[in-house]
Amino acid sequence: MRQYQQLLKEKGIKQSMSRKGNCLDNAIIENFFGILKSELFYLKKYNSINQLKKEIQEYIVYYNNDRIKSNLNKMSPIQYRAHYYQN
């Protein structure tokens, strides 16, 4: 969509699509958004955009620091990076 592409350009954002209809390069973030929606967004109704923004920010802190991921050897992302990239 040209309007969307123009808005991205104005904001200095590079679109991350390899070609039309192929979003494989976005698999990691798509997975994160799926988890965020199922663990946060779909569980309650929000009274305002500000409330939703605040809870998303809090969820991101939880996701990175406390949420255990089995594919990261049962560590949070922060713990995993600290453990494996420190050496």
From TrEMBL:
Signal peptide: none annotated. Pfam families: rve_2. One of its GO terms (molecular function) is nucleic acid binding. It comes from the Bacteria. GO terms for biological process: DNA integration. PROSITE patterns: INTEGRASE. InterPro entries: Integrase_cat-core, RNaseH-like_sf, RNaseH_sf, Transposase_IS3/IS150/IS904. Residues 1-85 form the Integrase catalytic domain. This is Integrase catalytic domain-containing protein.
